[in-house]
DNA sequence: ATAAATTAATTAAATAATTCACAAATTAAG
DNA sequence: CTTAATTTGTGAATTATTTAATTAATTTAT
């Protein structure tokens, strides 16, 4: 399965597959055919097969896919359990919710520590310690590539610091538009945009 | 400009433009050229022009676009300020964070009320009242089309109830895969998937 | 006024993504 | 063991999206 670079669109579907597969596994389902998976995730079976083919020859003809195999491959090839060291910027309500989600390590890595500008949020004794934002440069863990951004003030300033520290990917929960260097990727995780998309889809077009 | 249906990819970029335009406006910028906007949002100017052209003939050749005009058009044509009545399912940390975000009405509509299964979270006196999940069917506002899902238990069961109540779009913050009828749209707003995509993008492919 | 410069809109070309269609592999049944 | 029924994987065809090239409108400077 040679280096045909994986289409961007495919990359966006992998998390959907992975989520669905984990759910199937938790239901005790051990094998799945592309057509079944298709019903489940609402993506054409042929698209699914093509998407999976980028990761290798994973299925058996006349049989389907082993659920475990697929999950395994996602982990292996895509580094899902590569133990990412993630940092969290902003420890407000949303930051708390993220820290409370207790299956990080199972899924993609772990939030190693958090930073907040508000002294009252600081607590060095939590299992996920919260440091003052000032200490970002000294506290950032070795090899940290990914940051989750939930701050509400000085957003762009914080982004600039992160970029300088070698962060490669930012999960952006702010409601602002941020600007990053070319080698940094941003994934906006934004309710407002999501709702807008929903509204656009239902309202637009049919005039 | 007629009814050429707007590409899905374009629809996904509209919220980005809108966010950027609002930011520009708040900086006092009144007109913008596609090339400037391009630098700002990192999308090719020609793509931007094409995207905007689906909404009408909005720019002036040799001049650019009026920021206000564009914002206006987004509002008008895409119903951004159509005053959506949004409901929130789950009033935990994340739900709280969403309710605290105080610019809903400016942006897309408003969260009218919330529901939670936990009696302790219930409070009918908040400006956004929180009702017991039991009361969903009786309390859901007239004409409500959009629900934000932050519950952690009985996710699918809740989804089924929402679908039955005529909800057209679900913003899904859960970490589970949910199944909906064909006429309901789901936007997954999911840190985990976002991080996975980031990791996939950086790890995948170049083996 | 007029010409030069600028910039959106549009048509055409190139790329990317999806879907079709079928060969190859596998299972299951007889 | 052989055959029929499945179901994957993949070239080829199709469709969708992006980008380039061109055209037309507007502004600015002279």
What's the order of the H and E elements of chain A?
HEHHEHEHHEEHEHEEH
Number of strands of chain A: 8
Largest sheet entry of chain A: 6 strands, parallel
For the record, give the distance between the C-alpha atoms at the N and C termini of chain A, rounded to a whole number: 46 Å
Q: Looking across the biggest beta sheet of chain A, what order are the strands in?
A: 5-4-3-6-7-8
Poorly predicted runs of 5 or more residues of chain A: none
- Helix tally of chain A equals 9
Average pLDDT number of chain A: 89
Account of the 3D structure:
Two copies of one chain form a homodimer. With about 210 residues, chain A is an alpha/beta fold. The first copy, chain A, has two domains: about 10-75, Orthogonal Bundle (Arc Repressor Mutant, subunit A); about 85-195, Rossmann fold (3-Layer(aba) Sandwich). In chain A, about 40% of the residues lie in helices and about 15% in strands. Chain A is built from nine helices and eight strands. In chain A, the strands form two sheets. A six-stranded parallel sheet of chain A has the order 5-4-3-6-7-8. In chain A, helix 8 links the parallel strand 6 and strand 7. In chain A, helix 1 crosses helix 4 and helix 2 crosses helix 3. Chain A is elongated. The interface between A and B is large, with 65 and 65 residues. The structure holds a DNA duplex (30 and 30 nucleotides).
